[in-house]
Amino acid sequence: MPERRPRAAWRRQPEPSASRGPARPGDQPSVVQATLYRDGRKVSSPDTLAETFRQLREHPDGMAWIGLHRPSETELHSLAAEFDLHELAVEDAMEAHQRPKLERYGDTLFVVLRAARYLDAPEEVDFGELHVFVGRDFVITVRHAEAPDLSAVRRRMEDNPALLALGPEAVLYAILDAVVDGYAPVVAGVQNDIDEIETEVFGGDPAVSRRIYELSREMVEFQRATRPLVGMLHGLMAGFAKYGTDEELQRYLRDVADHVTHTSERVDGFRQALTEILTVNATLVTQQQNAEMRALAEAGFEQNEEIKKISAWAAILFAPTLVGTIYGMNFDNMPELHWAGGYPFAVVLMAVVCVSLYVIFKKKDWL
Prior knowledge:
Elements: E1 31-38, E2 41-44, H1 49-58, E3 63-69, H2 73-83, H3 87-95, E4 101-105, E5 108-119, E6 124-134, E7 138-143, H4 151-158, H5 161-164, H6 168-181, H7 183-203, H8 208-238, H9 240-243, H10 247-327, H11 342-363
Parallel strand pairs: 3-7
Antiparallel strand pairs: 1-2, 1-3, 4-5, 5-6, 6-7
Helix pairs in contact: 2-3, 6-10, 7-8, 7-10, 8-10, 10-11
């Protein structure tokens, strides 16, 4: 491990009472865990940042691993003063909502990671943000969400003192590995969702379009979390020789890079598949709408034919009704009222009118 540089003598050391920042009722403590290690072994777990700083000064050959969850500005400024963190990196850590990136400020690495976890109940992907400061003798993790939970990473490293003895770089690579491994359940959950969506699309589920859209948005977010990691890890690998990275850590990092490349390719495939599914769904919806419109048109045509038949018969029956109505009126001075051939004439007239109308409607295909 590189020799630890002395702190700047002019910098005022934070008081214990100020190390935790202003009280926030109802909030959980920001300092999740602060632990000092020496030669890969746990030395102590101070209760405050100020105590952590003091013990680290007393053991310059040790390493501090400080985990924070939504810290206050006071806590971050206290850490910046103690470990000489760059103000731009501290500003990013306070604001959050950063893209995944890796930046080097002197001897300190600043890494932003986007963790992901699959929520089974709502069938959604939840994303968290993690900021990591890596120096010669310290690792500081700042979480702004519930994920990722680094307690398992800490236990794993403590159970492997030989790996932990390699220093802060080993912790960084373990964190990277945990974040990337956390993508695997998400990939499996999304694959299952896509299979279900395909079934729903061909089953004609009307709510599937919304599900496709929401999952597509999550895949865009997933791409933003995984794609930059490929370049970040290759950037770390490019600095192996310059920074004298241990060979074991080199193999470790290459394995992480392989995993994140595979995950990134799967996510790209998911987004392409969802785009194609959305196109197929739009086509099926259009076909269904066309079929419904055709059915409505056919129903309207059949209805129109029935109306024409009814209208034709109504017209045929109306003619004799009209003649009978006229000659059924009780007036003395009506033409042909006392004519002997009046009745046969009226009957023949009604028959001629009805037959004529029937022939006309028949020619027009109304009957």
